[in-house]
Fold this sequence. Notes:
By secondary structure, the chain is an all-beta fold. The chain has strands spanning about 5-20, 25-35, 40-50.
Amino acid sequence: MRPGDSRSIRTAVRAARLSRSKPDRGLVHTGIEVLNQRGEVVLTLTAMNLLRRRDAD
């Protein structure tokens, strides 16, 4: 990447599951790609987030 480049991101949920140790939370693995103005991938990462669950009702 160079100064003045444009960037955009693409994200996708790769996996989600309930936390075994904290039943009110869930783990979500998200794949993230950063693209430059030519659509070339310049960065990839996988983020793991611990999120609070809400009731199904």
